[in-house]
Amino acid sequence: ILVTLILFSCIYCILMINKTQVYAKETATSWLPSVEAFAKINNTFGSLSRHGVLVIANNIANQLEESEKNKADILKFRNEIEKILKDYITNGMIAPGEQPYYDATLKSYNDFMKAVDEELTMARSGKALEALTHYKAVGRKLALEFQANAEKEAKFNADGAEGSTKQGESLTSITNWTMAAVIICS
């Protein structure tokens, strides 16, 4: 009976440790890189949206040399965000159930960028005040919508990481109790 109990507990522990490792790997390779990606997107997006307003302001103030530098920065930030979003799909980082969040984030980003393009075109063509009015009426709202969608997706990933970690923690706890019971019974 003792040998059977020890064999059972050893096999059980091996299975539970392996399952715990699956949750740890899932957290490390799926959830946390997604959280990091959206942190980078939010950081870069803040710079992108500020530089769009700076281009409009530079055109209003007739400081065109600053405007060109800010336009170059906008392009750099835009490329960074689009690369992260593309890599997100390419690297298979979309978790089960995340696709609707990603689609909403991507749509709101594209809508915002269309508004930025319109505002920059207006500013370049000497209609900087109209561009500012457009930003206040449309662009800012779309920026806030994108940020809200990106935050929802980041929260989805953070919650997934927390859930995966808790599942691993639960299995570890069960394994500890099982081993304690086997020791007592032995």
Question: Which helices and strands, and how do they pair?
Answer:
Blueprint (H helix, E strand, L loop, with lengths): L1 H59 L3 H27 L8 H26 L3 H58 L1
Helix pairs in contact: 1-2, 1-3, 1-4, 3-4
Please, could you describe this protein's structure?
The protein is mainly alpha-helical. The chain has helices at residues 2-60, 64-90, 99-124, 128-185. The termini are close together. The protein is built from four helices and no strands. The mean pLDDT is 90.
A few lines on this structure:
With 186 residues, this protein is mainly α.
The whole-angstrom Rg is: 25 Å
Residue share in helix: over 70%
Number of β-strand runs: 0
Spans where pLDDT lies below 50 across 5 or more residues: none
Gross morphology = rod-shaped
Q: Approximately what portion of the residues adopt beta-strand conformation?
A: under 5%
Distance between the termini: 9 Å
Mean pLDDT over the residues: 90
Counting helices, strands and paired strands, the structural category is mainly alpha
Order of helices and strands: HHHH
Largest sheet: none
What is the tally of helical segments? 4
